[in-house]
Amino acid sequence: MLPELPPLGSAEDWLRYAVSDLELARMPRAPEIMLEGLCYHAQQCAEKALKAVLTNRCVPAPKTHSVGLLLDLLSEQMAIPSEVEEAAVLTDYAVMCRYPGDAEPVTQQEYEQAVHLAEIVLIWARKVIG
Known about the structure:
By secondary structure, this protein is mostly helical. It has one domain (11-129): Nucleotidyltransferases  domain 2 (Four Helix Bundle (Hemerythrin (Met), subunit A)). Helices cover 58% and strands 0% of the residues. The protein has six helices and no strands.
């Protein structure tokens, strides 16, 4: 028997997707996998975790990839820890790093920082939601 899943679009459902993105960001890296793609999943984790908190607070989650905008919306509802606010920098990974262009390659240190920030946001979101 399959485990029962949370209702679609619920805070728990958003968290489930956030966890999946974090696991993708943490994947062992084959040579062909670009750090930019892994950073994208770190950004997605933070974005979805913040949308989980918004949903939990009965605030409609806007269709945006801007972690900063989501943090601004949440700051109207509650105090946001400074280490969570730092995750606003992840927004750049939502689009800039997904396609070839003018962006500089992501370094190992930047990748590790992106995953760390995503973890902080997810832990905080889980704590807020309970």
